[in-house]
User: Which sequence fits this backbone?
């Protein structure tokens, strides 16, 4: 049954259900326990905690475990109740959580990295734990033996990771702004391609294996959608955040993208419409509207006895234009521009009022969001930030709540 996208009133916003407080330092990761009223958190204060909701409505820690080094990343596999915690010292520790979530047993330590672990994923079918780190590498290790299977090095810190379990492809974002697509084998790997489009470090990735879409968020405040399975090279640019995008999650059933930024904004993007691809910026020695020379065009400046102008670009057509030919600003949501950007005067005239209708909603999370994860089946989201507070949100007023989406009313 196809998911229906209902029109949602602008007043709809995430509902804050609970705050979880108690960590003494930044909370680096938080995950909602599927089918349970519980949260698992890992923090720079070297503790991993499991919080369960009590009859009072408050969350209290049922497990409190202190590690040897600050916790920097975490992965949890609910069916096997295995949890993997990456640390600042490069090690990954595996634990097994009891059925009642009141006990956590140490399993083994993996010497995965030489520096801070930035992301972890666990693949049950291959029994691999895959991770990236600030030692500029991706590593994959065998969870049966605890031994290293392979490593691949990058030129910059590896900051985030997504993995396609079926095809064994890994997507790695790094601090240079590049995303590398790798095919992992038992003891080797091959680089399939690299994706370049961001002007800042990659901070978050999300892979949707159904539509074969990759979403990337970066410190340049933007999000890019890469159509990996479709038309080659197709990208969509989304610009609505005013700070670095820290976390993203794509809800395939409702065709919505949820993103969170460092300034606490939670955005929900409608991806169920035909969006336009932003044009490549054109280069020219003179304005492509009035033909006045740009300041580096010495010959034309000399020939016409005119002073060179500064080069700008129209975000809608991509043409190189001078300031006098691009005096207007406009939003253009169909191309991903949710706030006003520079457009040339002729493009401004072509944009109708209805073209400026927002295709995203923006909500205030009221804390610096450094990490987010969602339980899509329940429409719940957890955010954590540098304020040491973990917040649990009901997102169903924003992302829809119906049988078509699989969400259950709570």
Assistant:
């Amino acid at each position: 049954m196809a998911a229906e996208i209902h029109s949602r009133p602008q007043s709809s916003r995430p509902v804050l259900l609970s705050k979880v407080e108690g960590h003494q330092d930044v909370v680096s990761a938080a995950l909602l326990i599927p089918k349970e009223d519980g949260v698992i958190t890992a923090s720079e204060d070297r503790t991993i905690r499991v919080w369960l909701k009590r009859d009072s409505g408050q969350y209290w820690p049922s497990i409190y475990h202190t590690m040897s080094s600050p916790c920097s990343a975490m992965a949890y596999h609910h069916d096997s109740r295995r949890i993997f915690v990456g640390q600042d010292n490069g090690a990954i520790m595996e634990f097994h959580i009891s059925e009642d979530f009141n006990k956590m047993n140490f399993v083994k330590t993996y010497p995965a990295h030489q520096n801070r672990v930035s992301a972890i994923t666990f693949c049950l079918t291959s029994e691999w734990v895959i991770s990236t780190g600030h030692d500029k590498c991706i590593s994959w290790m065998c969870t049966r033996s605890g031994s290293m299977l392979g490593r691949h090095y990058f030129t910059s810190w590896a900051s985030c990771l997504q993995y396609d379990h079926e095809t064994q492809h890994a997507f790695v974002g790094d601090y240079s702004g590049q995303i590398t697509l790798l095919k992992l084998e038992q003891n080797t790997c091959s680089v399939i391609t690299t994706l370049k489009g961001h002007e800042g470090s990659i901070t978050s990735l999300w892979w949707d294996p159904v539509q074969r879409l990759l979403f990337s968020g970066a410190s340049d405040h933007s999000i890019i959608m890469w159509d990996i399975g479709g038309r080659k090279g197709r990208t969509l640019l989304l610009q609505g955040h005013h700070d670095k995008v820290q976390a993203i999650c794509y809800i395939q059933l409702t065709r919505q993208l949820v993103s969170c930024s460092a300034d606490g904004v939670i955005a929900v993007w409608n991806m169920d419409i035909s969006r336009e691809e932003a044009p490549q910026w054109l280069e020219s020695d003179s304005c492509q509207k009035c033909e006045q020379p740009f300041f580096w065009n010495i010959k034309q400046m000399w020939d016409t006895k005119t002073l060179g102008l500064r080069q700008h670009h129209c975000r809608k057509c991509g043409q190189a234009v001078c300031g006098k030919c691009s005096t207007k600003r406009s939003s253009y949501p169909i191309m991903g521009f949710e706030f006003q950007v520079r457009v040339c005067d002729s493009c401004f005239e072509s944009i109708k009022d209805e073209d400026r209708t927002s295709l995203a909603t923006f909500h205030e999370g009221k804390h610096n969001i450094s990490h987010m994860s969602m339980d899509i089946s329940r429409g719940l989201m957890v955010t954590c930030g540098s304020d040491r507070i973990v917040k649990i949100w009901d997102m169903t007023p924003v992302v829809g709540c119906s049988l078509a989406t699989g969400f259950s009313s709570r």
In short: The chain has a mean pLDDT of 89. DSSP finds three helices and 32 strands in the chain.
